[in-house]
Amino acid sequence: MKPHDSNISACRICQGALFKVLQLEDLPLANSLADLPNEEKPVYPIIIKVCEQCASAQLDTGIRKEVLYSNYSFATPDSITLTKHYRSIIDQLLENDIITKNSKVVEIGSNNGAFLKELSRHASLCIGVDPISPMDSNDDGCTFIREYFDVERSSIILTDFGQFDLIISRHCMAHNVDLFALIDGVDVLLNPNGTLIIENSYWPSIIERGCYDQFYHEHIYYHTIKSISHLVGTIGMEIVQVKLNNVQGGSMQYCIKKKNQKDRDKTNFSKMIEIESNLSLRDTFSDFQKNIDCHIIDLRATINNLCSRGKTIHAYGASAKASTLINTLKLTENEIPIIIDSTPSKQGKYIPNTGIVICSEGHLISNWPDYYLITIWNYADEVINKVKALGNTKSKFIIPFPKVHII
Question: What 3-state class would DSSP assign to 275?
Fold first, then answer.
């Protein structure tokens, strides 16, 4: 069986016609870290296509989940910024009476349980479902199930626990080729008056910032309000409210309920839908490839210039975005010998196909480089404050997006 499908001509969500807007270098799977510096990982195409109907974007190549998650290294980072975001979501859930102390909650794609543990203090039952969860089956008042979320798994959970009041999916409704397997699972498990919360990177925000580091194989979809609306409409649900935030460089949070409930507020996002209409037009993307190519040339030239002057550069944040950016720019250990990351399971491994070793934050204490390339640029302020708090007044910081600049 092939490890992927490709050359799609119809939208996987609504079957609308697709047109190509971008092609990057063929890239390795971003979260498949290497054990050795010279280990060669297979590469796959990065081609972005846009739907003429729902205005979503999607990868032309969809990697099978058995391949995608066979050596998956992502772990939700321990971040002040993220913790504040979790609490903001929870406050919103409480203020809108979406959860109470008696509520039962499922999180799809719970990873290491960082969000669910914050939420568990406000609900009676919290279950996380994630095929690569590092968590024990019961941890900090939560139950974790190391499986894919689909109809079969939902039916088992339903038998064991009954229906749920809230199902939340943060940044994983982009990660599965077959989204309908997930959404049909929601239909099985959510009670008729329950709420579905989806949060994902918002396609218009990616376009605005030109952040091509978000284009990697785990991110099969780049959603719009229209695409999410079509997806949940297949199970008789509709978006009742949306909220744009700055997580991951620009994400949309969708509050979704069964149709014909009273709390729908279409005025909350009607103007956004109007804006999205332009995203179905080819002319909107006439300069998209050119602008991204120019950014790649500009950032690579900045790094080359610094290296030619004998300046040392380390990177900060061994994220999927980092792998995408570094491989797209064809950087190696010759330009960036070290990348810093706080996740213990990543340390000692290498960014795939680059030879760049991942080191702990202990390297921040000494051997300060002239520059840090902040590959987790959406946490730039937090990273800079952390480095400076250690007394480092030497290093400067290269921020790659939206425009290349040095602090």
Answer: helix
